[in-house]
Amino acid sequence: MNNKTITRPSAALALLPIFAMLIFLVIGYGVYSLPIESLLLASAIVASGVAKKLGHSWDDIQNAIVERLAQALPAIFILVLVGGLIGSWMIGGTIPMLVYYGLKIVSPEYVVVTAFLVTSFISLCTGTSWGAAGTIGVALMGIATSMDANLAAVAGAVVSGAYFGDKMSPLSDSTNLASLVAGTSLYEHIQHMLWTTVPAFLVTIIVFLFASNSEVATDTLQNVDPIVDNIDELFTLNLFLLLPPVVILFGAVCKFPTIPLMVLAILVAIVNAVTFQEFELITALTSTLHGFNASMFENVGLGEITVLSDVLSLINRGGMSSMMGVVLLVFCAFSFAGALALTGGLTILISFLATSIKGTTSLIGATVVTTFTVVCTTSDGKLALLIPSELFRDTYKRMQLDAKNLSRTLEDAGTVIEPLIPWTSAGVFMTAALGIPTLDYLPWAVQNYTAVVFAMLCAMTGIGISKTHS
After folding, report:
1. How far is CA 21 from its chain centroid?
2. What is the DSSP secondary-structure string of 379-415?
3. pTM of the model as a whole
4. In a domain, 337, yes or no
5. What angle do CA 18, 24, 27 make, to 5 degrees?
6. Which of 300, 321, 342 is the last residue of a domain?
7. pLDDT tens for residues 278-316?
8. Same-domain status, 304 and 355
9. Number of domains forming the structure of the chain
10. If you ran DSSP here, which 8-state letter would residue 443 be given?
């Protein structure tokens, strides 16, 4: 029998992997622009070395990593299916049709604020940020590309809107989970979030309105008509092409399982490609697996039509294989998270934060920092709700603060912050779906980070802080 002795780490040793990751990312990525994947692997090596020094075997480390990856598999499947969704919706004509009518309806001057409001509405109705960004968000990026708009700003607007709805919708998994783990009711939780989310919403609209540029919009109008005409030449547009997004949105409202729903939407899009766009089945499947390419038009007798460069940049994308780089990033991130779990560094850091609590401001501040730390180190948005709630729930009770203050802070610092971290599942999903790096759209995801500012303002002023009367 193999009896292993696991040594209790010193604080410095336990925190070493976390500080190593921060140094690698700040210097390696921020200064030298090294690939995030390699930096996360280096961080995982440091964490594994610490775990080994504490007495854990390689099998322990490997099993911890495998356990984390197993938890991430549903998200990985969804990421791969998003690539298939984009490829099939492209060849089926769904995305070109949404872009076609979007260019006719949306004013170039207000494309950023429009993207925010439309995505907010879709996400609020469905309760899914990924569904909103992966459907209407992709179309909005196509519209923005055709208008020569600021793509980073539009991507930030889509992310802002997607997570506004995800946060405020009673259909959202994260909203339900936050209220559950904090010990408050769902609708009290949503109502209490209005104190931080509505001001953030208004600030976001103001920023996006000021971000509009009428001079660029005027020049862009001259380029829209040729793009619209070119799309009309290449694709047969009709109402049946809206069936794939209708399937996704209706299924999200009815809370159907995500993965089967996405597969169904892909199959409907493939049927559209064969039926209405007259592509062969093998071509439609190739587009789903490897992405759409304008050369595929030659198979349906449209090879003589010149495809404009702006339209090429819109349609040449998608495919499940395009997500393999994103999947690699997820593997690297969760390799670090798995090894880190054995070192105890996260526990020590959170315990230190808990001892510094003196009042309402420091309590909410500690909750924010803890939630943010858990998101960054575990790449798991659900853990970012669970761990801080377990740690601070009794403290909120002891200080006579209602549990909905805790649930709101968890959402302000966890749910909406996750897509702003490049190596989290949400971060890599948004980058993959919208085609814009996380750190490029981050400054424009105003709704996401301003809520934290208002959370701290509420804590410091006492406005919007609910107390118990026991």
Report:
1. 21
2. --HHHHHHHHHHHHHHHHHHTTB-HHHHHHHHIIIII
3. 0.78
4. yes
5. 130
6. 321
7. 999 999 999 999 999 999 998 888 878 888 887 887 788
8. no
9. 2
10. G
